[in-house]
C-alpha cells in the first residue's frame, strides 16, 4: 500500500479549497463547470477516489473485498469467486463483485466506484488497464491483487498463470501427436487479452516446428455451445482438410464436439479437438476432451490469502505464477 491520498492533495493541485474540491466532485450546482473539470482531471491524474463513507467513518475501511471480473456469463470466473469466498468466510471480510464486460473503460468506472466505498481489498482480473485505472490501483488505500494472468506488468500483487506458456504447451502437445493441419476458434477476440496471449504462445510453438495455422475464426461475442457448433461448422466447411482444432474455451470445444457428432466425424481420427479451462461442463461427455486446467479456484484462494496477510502485516509485493496442467483426454 502507498500513502493514502486525500481531498487536500486534489485541492492543492487545482489551487482551490478542500470544500470547493469536495463540492466539485459531488457535482454541486454552485461550482463552475471549469472548476469542476479541473478538479476531476486532477483527481484522475493522481488516482484519487472520493470517499463515500460519511462522517466519523471517513478514515476507515468497510469489511468488503471488491472483486472485478470481465464476466459472470462463463463458467470461469465463478470458480475464482468460490476460491476467494472460501478464504474470506472465516474472516470479517465479504466479497462484492463488479463486472467490466471485457471493456477497459467500464472497468475503470467500476473500480473507481468500488474504491470510493473504501473496501479492505481489491481483486481485479487481468493486467491490462487504462492509464487512469493503473493510477487508481497504484494509489489505492488497500491491498490490490491482479489475478489470472502473469504475462505483463502488474501494479500490485499478482497471482495467475502464463497464458502464453499455456498456449505454447498445448501447441507442443498437438504437434507431438502428429497433427499439422491445425485451426483455431476463439471468442471475445480481441477483447480477451488472455485468449490472445494463449493464441500467441500456441502459434509460436507451431512456428518453431515450421507449422502455421491453416485457418482460424475469431468471434467477438461470448462463448456458448451453439456458437462453438456454428463456428466449427463454418471453419470445417471452409477448410475441410483440418486435422485438429484448438479452442479458446472448453464451452466452444463442447460445441465443436456436438458438430462433429452430428456430422459423423470420428474424434480424433477425422479431427482432434482441444480447449482451455478444464470446466465442469466437460464431465459426463461420451468422450473426454483435451483441455488445460488454469488453476482458477487456487488463484482465488491465494488472492484472498494475500489480502488478509497484507492487512495483518504489510509486506513486499507478491508475484506468484501457478503451473497449468494439460489433460489430453481422448480427443487428441
UniProtKB/TrEMBL annotation:
GO MF annotation terms: DNA-binding transcription factor activity; transcription cis-regulatory region binding
Record-linked InterPro entries: HTH_LacI (IPR000843), Lambda_DNA-bd_dom_sf (IPR010982), Peripla_BP/Lac1_sug-bd_dom (IPR001761), Peripla_BP_I (IPR028082)
Keywords for the protein's UniProt record, in alphabetical order: DNA-binding, Transcription, Transcription regulation
Annotated ranges, domain HTH lacI-type: 5-59
One Pfam family cited in the UniProt record for this chain: Peripla_BP_1
Presence of the UniProt keyword Ribosomal protein in the record: no
Stored PROSITE patterns: HTH_LACI_1 (PS00356), HTH_LACI_2 (PS50932)
Protein name listed in UniProt: Gluconate utilization system GNT-I transcriptional repressor
UniProt organism field: Cognatishimia activa
Encoding gene per record: gntR_2
